[in-house]
Amino acid sequence: MSLSFYVHIPYCIKRCGYCDFNTYTPSELQDGATLEIVSNDYIDAVLKELESAPQQIVPTIFFGGGTPSLLPAKDLGRVIQKIKDRNGLTDNCEITLEANPDSVTLEKLKGYLEAGFNRISFGMQSAKPHVLAVLDRTHNPANVEKAVSMARAAGFKSISVDLIYGTPGESLDDWRHTLESALSLDIDHLSAYALIVETGTKLAAQIKRGDLEMPNDDLMAEMYLLIDQLCEAHGMSWYELSNWSKPGHECRHNIAYWKNQNWWGLGPGAHSHIDAKRFWNIKHPTTYKQRIFSGETVIADSENLTSDQKSDEAIMLGIRMREGLSTSDLNPSQVQTLTTYGENGFVEMLQDRVLLTPTGRLIADRIVRELTF
């Protein structure tokens, strides 16, 4: 048995207008602490939580946030070293750092490599300044190219960028420019996510007031199909609904999620999945640290997945991937439903597997609902 780790770093310099992630700016922290003050203390708490995790060998570690690249390499390296000493790492363990392009220097990047990271993912989102402004992103688009070049020069062998499409005011030409800019970089992997407007965010309030207008479904579909077309032309194939990579550069950590393998989430608000039991931590970092240091549990709640839930999730996650679903895992009614979708060009029916076509990926959620109803 193996165990992946997700390490949550819940700090950002500024909150983006679309973000509802469990992350905090220094001004939002109740104790008014600065990032310099919280870093050591926070890592101590994460290391203490780690003592509760199973001692199984680790194939992937992913530091997400927030903005993990705000913290010094030596602090994040303490977590990697403790996991290595306690659990052991596989020979090809994938260790990913999420990074803001503005927050890295060549020296910092070399430090992350020395700490054990071998994969980095930059939050690019868009190459158009007016789109970044709507998203409240702080980085200069030119800094993405600089950051990617520095990461390659430092020695990173696997580099990814994250994009968001469907921002209010973004045209298809804007999106094409962003994709062409991203694919001109020295990257191995690209993630592209449709913008989801979360209740309670600044962006949601702007849309509700009528200050901004969301793009229509037809434009969103065109944007998705354009990603697939341009990525394939640049030697990156889709392997999951929102992810494309060069051969051998798929994100193995995320694949562990999609295959419902075991992982432990360290940090406030982090989710874990161990042998069909799912549990998640309390959200606020101050409360998280207080409980950790006083020996109390930081688990907020948990659930044991039923056999029906496991079956439905296997369909929901499996259909998102390039390998698709095995027909042996489906009942006759589900196979018939998919056959109908196949006749309409939304899925490809192979001898023993069912795969989504590009247009089928546009309605993946609808197909899943019909299969799991």
TrEMBL record:
Q: Which UniProt keywords apply?
A: Chaperone, Heme, Iron, Iron-sulfur, Metal-binding, S-adenosyl-L-methionine
**Does the keyword Heme belong to this entry?**
yes
Query: InterPro entries this protein is in?
Result: Aldolase_TIM, Coproporphyrinogen-III_oxidase, Elp3/MiaA/NifB-like_rSAM, HemW-like, rSAM, rSAM_sf
Gene3D superfamilies named in the record: Aldolase class I
Iron-sulfur in keyword set: yes
What are the protein's GO molecular function terms?
Answer: 4 iron, 4 sulfur cluster binding; coproporphyrinogen oxidase activity; metal ion binding
Q: Which GO terms describe its cellular component?
A: cytoplasm
One Pfam family per UniProt = Radical_SAM
Tell me, which GO biological process terms does this entry list? porphyrin-containing compound biosynthetic process
Residues passing through the membrane, by range: none
Give the Radical SAM core domain ranges: 1-237
Q: Which family does it belong to?
A: Belongs to the anaerobic coproporphyrinogen-III oxidase family. HemW subfamily.
Under PANTHER family, the record lists: COPROPORPHYRINIGEN III OXIDASE (PTHR13932), RADICAL S-ADENOSYL METHIONINE DOMAIN-CONTAINING PROTEIN 1, MITOCHONDRIAL (PTHR13932:SF5)
Q: What is this protein called?
A: Unannotated protein
Q: Which organism is it from?
A: freshwater metagenome
State the taxonomy lineage.
unclassified sequences, metagenomes, ecological metagenomes
